[in-house]
Every structure is written in structure tokens, then in C-alpha cells.
Design goal:
about 140 residues, alpha/beta
């Protein structure tokens, strides 16, 4: 009886499959998400990419966090307790103008949902569950694009 020679599992796995890409430019990010599992997953993923991440679990505390931290990017769930993501986007735009990238996170991804997000002041609309490649692309994009 013959047994095959054992191989190291790392030899057959491509490096990019096991190691997350590190962000080219670390961003300051605020995540406003009421679902604790989604919020924790986003925080973990973004921190692994090298970003500085703060988070909030409802609309009022999320708005306060964004206005205090003045991050580069805010990922904002649309359906939040307290005040919704649309209102947060409008208030952030009034206070901070275009100095921040606002990304809507929503379980709804129809054209009307995306249109409403853009009309409220968001720069991007990502449908949940968020594809991390899409999120990485948003965070890698220069602000003036």
C-alpha cells in the first residue's frame, strides 16, 4: 500500500485567499448599523484592512459620532432606530458638506432605493449583504471621484 506525500496546505492556496489585502490608504470610517453581527463583521473587516473604525448602533448616536469624528467615510444603514439613514445623510451634508463619503447600506437594492439614497446625499448605495470587494472599492476610491 502506498500513501501520497503530505503537502503543506499553504502551498496549494493562493496568498490573496488567506491574507486580506491591506488598504493602500488607511481611512477613518464610522459604521452606523443596528444589527450587531453586521456591525461587528464590518468593523473587523475594515480594521483588518488597516482602517480606523468607530461604530454606532442607532441613528442619533451615529449622527453624533460622525459629526464628532469627522471621518473620511461613513457606512450608514438606512433602517435605523431613532432617525433613519436618509435623515442622517441630509444632516451630515448640511454640517460637513462634501468632505465625507457617505455610503448607504440597505437590504433593498431596486433603482428607486438607490435613487432615494442619492437624493438624500449619499455618494454610494451598497445592498446587503455587502460584498467586501465592493466595499474595498469604495474605500480605495479617491474622494473626488
Amino acid at each position: 500500500m502506498r500513501l501520497p506525500i503530505a503537502t503543506d496546505a499553504h502551498e496549494t492556496t493562493k496568498p490573496h485567499e488567506t491574507q486580506p489585502q491591506v488598504a493602500r490608504t488607511a481611512r477613518r470610517v464610522v459604521v452606523i448599523e443596528d444589527n450587531p453581527d453586521v456591525r461587528d463583521l464590518l468593523k473587523l473587516r475594515l480594521r483588518r484592512l488597516g482602517h480606523h473604525v468607530e461604530a454606532a448602533s442607532d441613528g442619533p448616536s451615529g449622527l453624533a459620532r460622525v459629526l464628532k469624528e469627522r471621518p473620511d467615510v461613513a457606512l450608514i444603514d438606512i433602517g435605523l432606530p431613532g432617525i433613519d439613514g436618509y435623515e442622517i445623510a441630509q444632516k451630515v451634508r448640511q454640517a460637513l458638506g462634501q468632505s465625507i463619503t457617505l455610503v448607504a447600506l440597505s437590504g433593498f437594492g431596486q433603482p428607486d432605493d438607490k435613487r432615494r439614497a442619492m437624493e438624500s446625499g449619499f455618494d454610494q448605495h451598497l445592498t446587503k449583504p455587502v460584498e467586501f470587494g465592493d466595499l474595498d472599492a469604495v474605500l480605495s476610491r479617491p474622494r473626488d471621484c
